[in-house]
Amino acid sequence: MEDGIRPKTLTSRANKIQSYSSSQSCCYDSARPATSARRVICYYPAMKWLLLIFSIVKSSLHIVVAVSLFVVGVLQAHPAAADNGLRLISRNDHLDSLAREPMIVRHESGALFVAGYASQITGTDWTAPPLLWRSDDDGESWDRVDVGTTSDGAQGNSDVDLAAGPDGTLYFLSMGFNRETREGTHIAVGISRDVGATWQWQMLSTTRFDDRPWISIAPNGIVHVIWNDGSGVRHSVSENSGGSWSEQEPIHFAGGSSHMAIGPQGEIAVRISPISASANKYDAAVDLIATSSDNGVSWIKRPPPASLSWDRTLSGPQTVRRWVEPLAWGNEHDLWHLWSEGQVIKLGRSTDYGQSWQIHDVTHEKGIAFFPYMVAGPGGKLAATWFVKDGHNLSARTALIDISAETNSRLKVQTSDLFTISAWLENTETMTPTPAGEYIPVMFLADGTLAVVSPIQDGEHGRWGFTWWNFGEK
User: Fold this and answer.
1) Are 320 and 368 in contact (CB under 8 A)?
2) What is the tens place of the pLDDT at every residue in 5-60?
3) Could you identify which of 55, 82, 275, 348 might form a hypothetical disulfide with 357, taking C-beta atoms 3.0 to 4.6 angstroms apart as the criterion?
4) Cβ within 8 Å of residue 394, ≥6 positions away
5) Residue 79: its pLDDT value, please?
6) How far apart are the first and last CA of the chain?
7) What's the rounded Cα separation, in Å, for the pair 298 and 289?
């Protein structure tokens, strides 16, 4: 329903309150044996009125108790100690080519990189070089990076991902997409060993329906890439910093590559969703989290902490739009999972590779929250973003979650005010806001603040590019 799924704890508490009130309403039922108080009422009218007043007061007290229990139930159902503790430090619009569904990474040199893909109307050439920008002044200004030519293997006009290795190697993952047939064409990966000055490209897959690639680097230096093609979630690794790649057994033989995260001990988690192949395929029975503790050689697959509904069209007005269901690893093998249940953003924590979960309510929105994203940072913190659709209004929010402060099932959550990105549907008569992708990325900067990148897609005013947002604690 439009207002989202009602929290189970709240529903249970409400049922208890209803039952409690009903039992009190029959306290003076005529079917029950007469008491001395009732006899007094029969013979002394004055006492009858006094006792009537007393019963009203007593009932009022019951109401107060019930309301109090309800409030306590709500507090127990929403354990996160949330406040608007994040402030917007700066916002910088970079106008160039559109950067839809962007990704960000920070190189060990301090250089920042943003990748994205071009207009869905004009960016139809899946063999065109993908788009990348670099900043050397903490996001104040940006320059386009020459990633090579089509003949060099630099090809892609859709989903992207970025990663930076401990040895300084920069990785750029790019997907090709045929916008006429609505099918993926390939997954390509570029590597740079000189902070983006030069690039070498390799084609990881040219399978029909290739879709949603992710790249991440384990502490032992092994680079992992996943993607899907409608026939399962595929997995390729490099043990020589991208010099060569070896495809492994599929992680699963159905479903989509919703997200991947690698932990500080080398643990890997992959979110497998029912939707795959750019929404050309839907496997309703597939909704899993796969984990590996042996570098991806073997996988244990379990259901996620909540049973979710998926809208394969991503357009249902009363449904939560889902695509990326993010994962992150904390310390001591803690696996975290973020998702939306309508107006409530949920965060699950598992200490046993997804076998059991403790669930927190992160925040409640007035509208429907959707397309969340999350990363782990230093000092036991998570950073997250999501969109909020409230009627015709579309906005976004950023959150800083202190998981190290988890005590008595409570989390410290600091959120930003809602903010609006500069993105509207292309080629429409009226300006209709759009997320221009299925997430907005967030990243921890060296000074502990958060960086967020959102697309600028404003054909009405000829503005294309991306916005660099910087948020910090108040």
Assistant:
1) yes
2) 333 333 333 333 333 333 333 333 333 333 333 333 333 344 444 344 444 434 44
3) 348
4) 387, 388, 420, 421, 433, 434, 435
5) 54
6) 36
7) 13
Question: Cα–Cα distance between 228 and 235 in angstroms, integer?
Answer: 9
Contact 118, 98 (CB under 8 A): yes
Whose CA is closest to 114, among 95, 142, 146, 88? 142
51, 40 Cβ separation under 8 angstroms: yes
Domain boundaries, the chain: 8-77, 81-473
Helix (H) or strand (E) holding 356: none
Q: Which residue, chain included where needed, has tokens 């080398």?
A: 266
Degrees (nearest 5) of the Cα angle 103, 429, 310? 50
The maximal CA–CA distance of the chain, rounded, in angstroms, is 104
CA distance 467 to 455: 6
Beta strands in 243-357 (DSSP E): 246-247, 256-262, 268-273, 275-276, 281-282, 288-292, 300-302, 327-329, 335-340, 344-350
Task: Indicate the helix (H) or strand (E) that contains 19.
Answer: helix 8-25
Stretch (H or E) spanning 378 = none
Calculate the average pLDDT of the chain: 86
User: Are β-strands 256-262 and 246-247 bridged in parallel, bridged antiparallel, or unpaired?
Assistant: unpaired
Chain Cα centroid distance, residue 466: 20
68 φ/ψ angles, rounded to the nearest 5 degrees:
-60, -45
Where residue 276 falls among pLDDT bands split at 50, 70, 90? very high
The H or E element containing residue 360 is strand 358-364
Domain 81-473 grouped into CATH 2.120.10.10: yes
pTM for the structure as a whole? 0.83
Strands 86-95 and 81-83 turn out to be unpaired
Cβ–Cβ under 8 Å, residues 157 and 146: no
Mutual angle of helices 45-77 and 36-43, in 10-degree steps: 140
Q: Which amino acid is at 149?
A: T
Instruction: Return the pLDDT at 47.
Output: 40
Q: Identify the DSSP state of 150.
A: G
* Paired residues of 56 in beta bridges: none
DSSP 29-67: -TTSPP-HHHHHHHH-HHHHHHHHHHHHHHHHHHHHHHH
Q: Using CA atoms, how far apart are residues 113 and 105, in angstroms rounded to an integer? A: 5
Chain centre distance of CA 18: 35
Rounded Cα–Cα distance for residues 449 and 160 (Å)? 24
Sign of CA dihedral 87, 93, 99, 104: negative
H-helix or E-strand containing 458? strand 450-458
Cα dihedral 315/317/318/321 (nearest 10) = 30
Q: Which residues pair with 176 in a beta bridge?
A: 186
